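Researcher: Structure for this, please.
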Amino acid sequence: MLLARGVTVQGAAKAWHRLPVDTEDYRAEVSQPVALRPLTLATIGPPVTGLTILATHVSPPLSDDVTVTNKVSQNLHAELYQRLLGRLEGADGSIAQGARVVRQFLINAGVDPDDFLFYDGSGLSGDDLITPRAATALLVYAAHQPWGQAFRSSLPIGGVDGSLSGRFAGPMKGKVFAKTGTLSEVNALSGYVTAASGRMLVFSILCNDRQPSGDAARNALDRIVTEIAAAN
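Model: Predicted structure, token format:
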């Protein structure tokens, strides 16, 4: 295509394929511990010594982008996060190194390493595995961090916005802050709910092998969350 458009090309073309996600080599790489370090503009900035800067662009704050990603399930951004983490904290910008960094972060947060296995950043892979216990452990950890409130605000709000704008109407409106997870045979919901007592609770409900058609599974998830809030 380049040659057809008058572009001079030297050398031969090479095809690079990402590592298959069903190999033991992938698991071995992901399971390698990594020392995570705080990321600042000074540590992630590109080297400029000896270079001439032609243009600069300052992106929106990460919190703004995370809000978009969580509210509307922007899978592409989630995939890019994983590769960026691998580039900044791991050995390179591959999906394996990104998964390695995510795994280390979860372990540092107190999540049992036997409770999850991630291959991609968006959760679309059928090989992604997680238990409700792991999800709730992470949510509890996040709630006690300085960035916890910002993270919770980035989640869809029941009856208000994002992928929960059409759910949890009536008395539950504005009381559920949760991330949806929807595939053809999977329906999941994990996050925070303000209980009748005023307490903030965490929950994670994962439904596998649901019927692809109909809203029975989704309605059941909403009823469970509503009952949790009413009983507490």
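Researcher: Any notable elements?
Model: The mean pLDDT is 92. Residues 216-231 form the longest helix (16 residues).
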